[in-house]
Write a structure and sequence with these properties.
Elements (H helix, E strand, L loop, with lengths): L12 H11 L8 E9 L2 E4 L5 E3 L5 E3 L3 E4 L4 E6 L4 E4 L3 E9 L9 E8 L1 E5 L11 E4 L4 E4 L3 E7 L2 E8 L1 E5 L4 E5 L3 E4 L7 E3 L17 E4 L9 E10 L4 E4 L10 E5 L5 E5 L4 E3 L4 E7 L3 E8 L2 E3 L8 E8 L10 E9 L3 E2 L7 E9 L4 E9 L4 E13 L2 E10 L11 E10 L5 E9 L4 E10 L1
Parallel strand pairs: 9-11, 19-25
Antiparallel strand pairs: 1-4, 1-6, 2-3, 2-5, 5-8, 6-7, 7-10, 8-9, 10-13, 11-12, 12-15, 13-14, 14-17, 15-16, 17-18, 20-21, 20-22, 20-28, 22-23, 23-24, 24-27, 25-26, 26-28, 29-31, 29-37, 30-37, 31-32, 32-33, 33-34, 34-35, 35-36, 36-37
Length: 452
Amino acid sequence: MHPQQPRFRLNRQAVLLGIISATFPVAGYCVAAGRADFVIGNVEAVAADGTRRPLVKGSDISTGEAINTAAGARAQVRFADGGYVSLQPNTLFRVDQFNYQNKTDGNEQGFFSLLKGGLRAITGAIGKINRNTYKVATPSATIGIRGTGYKAEIRDDGLFVSVGEGAISLTNNVGLLVVTAGNAAFVANINTAPASTTEQPRTPPASIQPLGSPAAIILPNLPSLTSGSGYVMSYAYLYQPSVALIGSSGSVPAPIDAVFNSNSQLTSYSSVNATGNLGSASVTFSATDGIIGWGRWEGNISSTGSIPTMTPGVLHYVIGIPTAAMPTTGTATYNLMGYTNPTATDNSSNYAVSGQLTVDFALTTMGVNMTIANSANSYTVSDNTATSRSGATFSGTFLATTSSTGSCGGACGCTTSINGFFAGTNASRAGLSYSLNNGTANIQGVAAFAKQ
């Protein structure tokens, strides 16, 4: 039996960055391995000699470089073989060796190290023929693959992994454990055997938001939204402050025919009693994970029915295929996945959105806890009973509290309305539109959530 080693604790970033320089040779780190698909927050690439550079969307990643994400920051990197990793906040991930020449002839390699934090990964061509050509080293075990999508997170008490597709292997000084699709495992340290567990790595999807310029974000290796019927759409429309499900009658939405462009941006919709298209407007932001999409139209929008034909206009939308068979038992928490930059009738701006949804599927109510804030105003929308749920849709009108320094300051009540829906298998996603009235102005937008 191996003696117990001291726990490998990764709580000093300076020590970790020193490890990078000390344990990997400088030679060879100029080899391009991948590219950043998108970056949110403060992310650095750290070379083997300690040289640092900010990582931005489109930046190349070279062999030997480590990617360091700060608190609240995220990065997604697509590698030359088609694989990718999505790095969580406070993560240190290193590309140890990478070689791919558009063929799998035995010379390909993808060797990485997860030194701190968490990731989601989908493997590419490397490892599909020879599984020994792909591995991720961690302080507790080495992750190998059999062609897969998986998650991994390092915590103080060890390594947690789960597999979404395919299988992975965990190998350390004690033994080997194969983890198959739908299962999770835990490894305390290098001298403790890997074991099955029901506890999942905490690696929620990135919270995506526009960062200034127009953008179309599609999460890598996930399906895009395709034109067709059967969608449901919730909107917020600024110039006649309102939120609604398109073509809805109470909480029952009419099916929407939706048209998307190649970037999964909604360009037109139609239902039995409402139609809309961009007209001469433009899509100033959009994002999707292939299950749910959200975005914003701005300009001379053409519409009939639910949305008034008023120009200029700002239309926030969230759209998806509603969940056909909703769960009827159990509870779930939904974390914010993304949102559109809120707009306001008083032209206030730079609002950020945060929050969660909580659902008891046996009840007809659900909880909403959201904060909409900028440097001058902060509004909290929180209620566990005022949101009514019917099938795959929900709505509510309730009061928000605020620490606003402007109108409606203090703990007064600001009227807030929401409308939304659940999408995806087993209600895996939720989308809502909201309109908050602070007494003198309306603040509006949409948000998308993922079930944890």
